[in-house]
Amino acid sequence: MYHNYLDKFVNSKKLISILKFILIIRLIMELLKIKPKIKKNKNYRMGLVALSTDFTIEKDFNRVLPNNEISFYVNRLPAFNPLSKKNFLRMNSKLTEITGNILPNQKFNSIAYGCTSGTIASGKEVIKKRILKAKPGARISDPISAAINAFKKLKIKKLTIFTPYAQSVNQTVVDYLKKNKFEILSFHYLNLSSDVDIGQVDTQFLLKYLSKIKLKDSDGLFISCTALPVLDILEKLEKRLKKPVLSSNQVLIWESLRNTGYKKPIRGFGKLLRI
Question: Could you tell me the domains of the chain?
């Protein structure tokens, strides 16, 4: 009987010693724990919803944006070929979900939607509403609305248009711009129906072809489609054609920058970004 009490006493002392040891270790760990300093990012925050099939748009944004002042984030919207209104509407049904997954629950200064003909198919207000549902408070830009604002900024009323699209998509671009009071003097296109093909068109071929377009009575040339790799040749085209040359990605970047509050000139990518 006495042995039992003695064993319990000894065991309880051991238990107390173990608990004390654990407590000391926890206190030491607490003292050694490093509390990180949280950095306050003062950069403008910009998001981009790019199409899953677009080779070009993300690279163009990264080439132009001043990384020391703009924090840039991207997510991809599942896209479907061939390019058609039916497939654009199907694609845009996922827009709120895809936008919401760009740094979930974080605020953005601006969100850019990266599809010219996709905006026309759904309507800019539908695109805006779906994006704002995921990112309330952000300023929204899309290529065709940005193009119209850029035309007004440069006082362009008479247009020559170039696209890589098939004729069915081309007509929606022409009709949209005419509806917004722009005169279309001439139209040139490649008749491609896949973003994958559009993104792989040779840039030097485009430079050579577009340099031959006559802009005598046009106020400028608009190159539609975010997938077409033309950003790097805009300066050369403007020098050769002696008129403003604008592209979907260029105007979208321009308006997105202004939506964030950034207004400094950027050189090397056409007149629009310099003003």
Answer: 44-143+257-262 (3.40.50.12500), 144-248+264-272 (3.40.50.12500)
